[in-house]
Specification:
With about 140 residues, the chain is of the alpha+beta class. It is built from 5 helices and 3 strands. Helix content is about 50%, strand content about 20%.
Amino acid sequence: MRQQKGCVVQRGADWILGYRTTINDNGTLKTIHKAKVIGPRSKYSDEDARSEADRILAELNRSKIDPEHVATIGDFVKNVYWPFVEMYKRPSTLKGYRELWRNHLVPRCGDDLIRDIRARECRNGLRTLRSRTRPKMANRCRTVR
């Protein structure tokens, strides 16, 4: 995999890092553009934003994961999770899980790469869901298994 430097730009009140990554989309490798917020311009100078971008890209460039093994959460759920649930759960449970997935989880994380997800982001997503919906709904999304 080639080393990339990315592109650091100002967008609104934030510094944004733009870069490319290769993903596995249903067995087809695709190169996509990604953008990640580095932080507010008030906190980072030009040099600080560039050094933070270099730190983020160092993790990507150091990654030894082949693009063939990189999938989005949506692809994983469609190709691995749903077949498993169909075999071991009752139809009513499957229906409830599919509704939770479609209505609450796909809009938040369906296109995110599995390799980019951290536990902290999942906790923050559940907190946001809890504040925007009934707390019971966030608990149901957390316990889908």
